[in-house]
Amino acid sequence: MTEHETNNALQNALALALVEHPRASLQELACAVGVSKATLYRFCPTRESLLERLQSSSLNAYKSAIKDANLDTAEPREGVRKLLENCYKNKELTLFTIQHWQPELLENGECIIAQEKIDAFFLRGQQSGHFRVDISAAAITECFHGLFFAMIEAERLGRVPRARVLTIIELILMEGASTASSTPS
């Protein structure tokens, strides 16, 4: 494993440890992820610096997930699938961000730009007839985020099998929850 991969693995483990033990000290976190206190202190010398690093890494992972999904050119179903797969790679950081949410994160210019890229993807999908037009692209983006957040938390809690998480999100997002034969009353 390269140093970068080791750091990412440690970072994801720490993010999940903070989700499961939000008030843990650095010593308790080191124990939870199986590293020495010295190793953790070299990674982040204070709890505050750890929280900042994880928040920053979460935003960077989100931006990379969007960029690597090639949403500017991807076909709608493939774009959704790639975006889900890319976001899932760092699901622990997403869980951390949800639990340690701060409203000022929405004001981050990079976060806004990333969200606008997803909005634009869904708008193109609407224009090509792949997504409903009676729901705004921004609302579909929010549904994407909400489904992703809820399903990775459900997986963590053991309510949804890991192997089905991405498939369930894709099916609900692309086809809805109704059966093909159901009709509205």
TrEMBL record:
SUPFAM superfamilies: Homeodomain-like. This is TetR/AcrR family transcriptional regulator, mexCD-oprJ operon repressor. It comes from Marinomonas polaris DSM 16579. The lineage of its organism: Bacteria, Pseudomonadati, Pseudomonadota, Gammaproteobacteria, Oceanospirillales.
